[in-house]
Amino acid sequence: MYTKEMLESIKKVEANREANAALEPRRMTAEEKDELLRTYHPDYKQGEFAVLSVGPNKGEKVPTELAALLQANSRIKPEEIDLSKPDYDTDVLIIGGGGAGASAAIEADNAGAKVMIVTKLRMGDANTMMAEGGIQAADKPNDSPAIHYLDAFGGGHFAAKPELLRTLVTEAPEAIQWLNDLGVEFDKAPDGTMVTTHGGGTSRKRMHAAKDYSGAEIMRTLRDEVLNRQIPVVDFTAAIELILDENGRAAGAVLLNMETKEILIARAKTVIIATGGAGRLHYQGFPTSNHYGATADGLILAYRAGAKLLYADTLQYHPTGAAFPEQIFGALVTEKVRSLGAKLINVDGEAFMHPLETRDVSAASIIRECNARGKGVATGSGLGVWLDTPMIELKGGKGTIEKRIPAMMRMFGKYGIDIRKEPILVYPTLHYQNGGIDITADCQSGVENLFVAGEAVGGIHGRNRLMGNSLLDIIVFGRNAGRNAANRSKDVTVGKLSLEHVDAFAKELEQAGVHSDIVSPKLLPDYRRNK
Amino acid sequence: MENMVRVFLFGKKYEVPENLTIMKAMEYAGYQLVRGCGCRNGFCGACATIYRIKGDRELKACLACQTKVEDNMYVATLPFFPLVKQVYDINTVKPEQAVMMQLYPEIYACIGCNACTKACTQGLNVMQYIAYAQRGDFEKCAEESFDCVMCGVCSSRCPAGISHPQVAMLARRINGKYLAPKSQHLEDRVKEIRNGDFNELIEGLMGKPIEEMQELYNHREIEK
User: Fold this and answer.
1) What domains lie within chain B, and their CATH numbers?
2) ipTM, 2 decimals?
């Protein structure tokens, strides 16, 4: 499978393997990290951002691709939409069928509300399904929620909203317990002790996992539970505009059947946006580890309705996307590979960094190694560095890879690469939207009765997220959003439905001299050759 | 110039570069996918696909996002398959063999043809995990089925009408909830948190100026 040049380089990797495996590379100082990020991290490339001309974040910068969608045209003409006869009428409308949406649905159902989920693809088609490495929770005796707080706060460059981060870490152990009680399997020792590992930037081993199918195991269980409760799921149906009532409170959504293009109206007492991330916008041309539907739809809907965004200019590039073979270019190689002992090695066989720096630092370091230092391996689609997977079995014993990271073994095995014997090539891939819709501690956005959970939220993690804190946040904030939206719905009387905000936003664009020839939300990327 | 191969998408011929996955080949041919495309990474089971290489008798199954095209490949996607999903209450279900008998009695009609295993896109021993389910051995069924992406190809090939992925889902949930050992440290920690044991510590951190937090973070002890 590997080319002759790659095999030459692998020889150097093999020759140094034992020495590199025994090495504990120095961690960077705070100053070194700052300098590295400023110089090499994609978030710091000024030319890739645009300043918004309208809306709640007017004057702030966001990625140019996101700016184009935030300032694009609506998919509907409000005057053509009949809001008088809703097709669906519910207490809580949840937009998005991933981990956050499913958790919200279960808790809203527990709280006695009438709930409905709409999702543009199938239930469970979400980044949650693809999360491999694990979920953090400080539940070991040598750990505490306060240490978890410090790790996440520092890893996120001290920018997280303290009240959100507090919720995340203190409700983490209960989230694990909740999942386990629903029947989610976790890797455990025979006495029941959770098998936990480090992630980049953690100071305690608090990564819980279900092999390297952690997110899939969580997602399929949550989906099964939603189905057991017979919560209505309207699939292949996208929300394309929020509906407010005459008092400016969220009161439903305009829906689009993705196949028949039929327009439907859902009226609700409260709405939860759980639409996930934006990897499929391919910021700065990066490949992505994200799901097909990750196109920032929720941010567009909320922004048009008047909700403020927070840290929308910070993205996470996962340090280890697959760089070869090209069929899996950009696919996620879980951080757990490094947690288990694999190190990052350059073309000359040198371990050039500590393998468990935070993700932004690791990504920037790989970019520097490949570009400025010229120590990358040519992959055919660009450059990459080695992730020396055979080290895992050197450290953990034979069979560790098959037992702990079977999905990785399968993914590369399909292309004739046995990761137990050969290293793999990696390069950063667009992975996570650190920013999103600004919420208060009760998960409410700037629009009354509009709640948000999961990757669509901004501020939980600050300007960088640690591994395992996203699976955690979708559960913690998904549950809270579901509970809060359900309780709120009990006191809500929906006024007359309105799409005036859509017209108002269009007018604002016009006045600002912004003319767009595209519509948003984007819904799906277009990968056709002949468009 | 890229090397091209001929593929037949739903019977219609297209020329596509040989290095593409089936999914990317469909897009190259001009399909804007809505169904049959999910994570694009082998985890979600949305892109179950049946194919046959011209001249070959055997039908093969795969995930379109994880499989390279071949010359003379006839491709039909299976974006949805009507699996039977029984509704149950996880809190009252008993971890006993009888539950399988009750919810999925058709598993006992398995004729042992092994078509499910041969069709599995993940290379799992599907018939074996159904055998474990029949015996009420949920732990083994859970372990054997763990990598299932619920694409449903196994069920499409089953003469007994078994919905294998749903049977396995039930077994895993029962195993996870009832049979796997309990984590005492987790229960203890949840109690401590409910008791407010960490409130003071965290509130202390929340109130500190950034410089002090930076100091704490940069000098924190990291577990080996």
Assistant:
1) 4-77 (3.10.20.740), 98-179 (no CATH), 184-218 (no CATH)
2) 0.97
